[in-house]
Amino acid sequence: MTHGIGWMRVVFLSLLFGLLASCGGGGGGSTGSSGASGGGTTPTPTPAPFNDIPQTDAEAARFLTQATFGPTSSEIARLRHIGYSRWLDEQMDPARTPATLLLPHIHQMTVNDTLDYRERRNYWLWKTVGASDQLRMRMGFALSEIFVVSDRDYNNKNFERITHYQDMLGQGAFGSYRSLLEQVTLHPAMGTYLSHLANQKAVTYKNAQGLQVSVVPDENYAREVMQLFSIGLVERNPDFSPVLDANGATKATYDQSVIAAMARVFTGWTWAGNTDANYWAWAGHDNDYRAMECHPKFHDDQAKLIFRGITIAGTSDCKVTLQQTLDALATHPNVAPFISRQLIQRFVTSNPSPAYIGRVSKAWTDSNGDLGKVLRAILLDVEARVPPAASDAGFGKMREPLLQLTALWRAFDAKYLPATNGTYMFRFSNSWDFTTTLMQDSLRAPSVFNFFEPDYRLPAAGGIQGIYAPEMQLYNEASFGSIFNQQLDAGWNNFATTAPTANTPAPVMDINPLLTLANNNDHAGMVAKLDVLLFYGTLSPDSRRVMVDMLDKLKAANRPADERVRSLVQLAVSSPEFVVQR
């Protein structure tokens, strides 16, 4: 059963596409909660209030599915004891829950010359499983999918820089959006990725052949900081619905002239410590992660007319120009709904209702872009906490493949011991680059548009747009088989009754809780345990019946208890009810 996945792949995809189609992906029916964000017209009824203390293990597990890298039995019990608000307080308090940082681990390695990106990615992935600052790491992960840089354009000599960038996102997870936007802008990882490092004002000169050459500022970051990191392409109301002109058409947030003006803003910044004479120099900066520094000689000192008719004063001081521009971006009315909606998609649902986005946007505006308060508003919103009605088929999201893997590891208390030299370079199939199998990896997107886009919609019949399903961009029949097989190599093939030893090739999961039930032939109990940890109590009666029936048949065929455990987990993780988070 472990390797014969052909039948399961077909069944999974047919069920998954059918489930998502029923959520508004095909046929033209209402999308329930999607509203302006998802293309539907049916308003979402206001759910009943919820208690701050989860009333069941399933309620606690559902919250932890949204807010962490996966529920654990111990965290479920703790959340039920202290409640949502206190849990969030603790997670956002750096004194009680210090931030997990990756760079100190890299620096303490004595084998730096042989380290590569796999060490950063594997160390981060393992910390998502065991670190206490689950919310901070989950928010840092979400931010890395908005403020995208990728190690695809790096070499092994400069991966400390991107490691520092990843730490920076985590440290800013609950802070000011405006402050984080400035740190992103001036970080050399972003400066090299979107090519505004060593950007210069327009110049004209004659080359060695006597030909006149004109150089204009690079527009790459100028475009993406607006399109992807702040205001988006069209004007938005607080609920993310588009602002329309007198003819009912959308209104663009900027045009090419604004891009050109913004490109002039981002001139004059280069490596920390450079002089004017070596403004463009690269040598010696392989692992330099200090913020870029201003060189007035290379900065465009003329006034710049940017979005909303705002004029940035002419000055040779690129610090002043940058501050004015970032202030204008951070206070643009689009920022609250544009970023809030993406964060809701990363934690709760791909198709948030306009009302949900509006409430989170208000939290953003009221707090002046305090990301911690915004995240609290997202997770404690009544639409997040009260499970959707069966008729609200548009609510939910697909779990990203990385989050599927971490949920599996955390559910079964996975243990891992690094190599004797302290490295965390996993040695199971494809662990050097999960983008080849899981279709994503930490800070390794194929482009600045991430592994999937927030506006990706499912194909629908009759020319009608389906619901938003960003993560579905990762899936087709081939990629499902690849993701499934990678979970096999990293997951249920590594169940064990004892703790791992040093140099273990992969995290080892504790089989004992399920094995005890299997030895007692308590198949219903096995399914019930998985229902809480992997499905937060949402398994349908039909799914329960299928799982118990499979276990009964395996027992009747005299299959051993450990095989029944692995078969059950394999079936559970490959089910649409696990992949589609509601």
TrEMBL record:
<protein>
    <submittedName>
        <fullName>Uncharacterized conserved protein, DUF1800 family</fullName>
    </submittedName>
</protein>
<dbReference type="InterPro" id="IPR014917">
    <property type="entry name" value="DUF1800"/>
</dbReference>
<dbReference type="Pfam" id="PF08811">
    <property type="entry name" value="DUF1800"/>
</dbReference>
<feature type="region of interest" description="Disordered">
    <location>
        <begin position="28"/>
        <end position="54"/>
    </location>
</feature>
<feature type="compositionally biased region" description="Gly residues">
    <location>
        <begin position="28"/>
        <end position="41"/>
    </location>
</feature>
